[in-house]
Design a protein that fits this description.
Blueprint (H helix, E strand, L loop, with lengths): L2 H7 L7 H18 L9 H13 L4 H14 L8 H13 L5 H13 L8 H13 L7 H16 L1
Length: 158
């Protein structure tokens, strides 16, 4: 059992929350191990559904979100995580007002370093911008806003 699995197992939780966090972990781990196929979004709905479910359980979401954040921050690369999942992760953290600076920095830096934002649809873009703009205790990520702004302008002019 890995340290991450032990952390999850030690949480006393009710309902489907442990199952939801396991789905998030599985999807993130699968993406990291296998890499993403071009245009594949086969597991994105699991991440999004699990995050939405966690939003509903206010009794333990702080601890679970912290474990998820630490896991993502500890990943060597976010290349296996889809734009939908990246935007859903920062959206969910902002929605419950949990501002994990290292997580937001890692995701923001990853998006800035991407060659193109063509895999981001308008919903991914708007959720990401909303999350970073409303993460009140985290300084805004100017390079992210510049990258997304440039992407929007270039798409509207073509």
């Amino acid at each position: 059992m890995h340290d991450f699995d032990i952390e999850i197992a030690n949480i006393q939780c009710h309902g489907n929350t442990l199952h939801d966090i396991a789905k998030i972990t599985f999807v993130l781990q699968e993406g990291r191990q296998e890499g993403r196929q071009e245009g594949s979004n086969r597991n994105d709905h699991h991440v999004e559904a699990a995050l939405h479910s966690l939003l509903l359980d206010y009794t333990i979401h702080h601890e679970l979100f912290g474990i998820v954040a630490n896991h993502i921050v500890g990943l060597d690369s976010l290349n296996g995580i889809s734009p939908q999942s990246l935007s859903s992760i920062v959206w969910a953290f902002t929605k419950v007002r949990l501002f994990h600076r290292e997580l937001f920095d890692k995701i923001g830096d990853h998006i800035v370093q991407l060659q193109s934002l063509d895999d981001f649809n308008p919903e991914h873009i708007s959720n990401t911008i909303w999350a970073f703009a409303n993460a009140s205790s985290i300084p805004h990520h100017p390079q992210l806003f510049d990258k997304i702004g440039d992407f929007i302008v270039s798409n509207n002019s073509s």
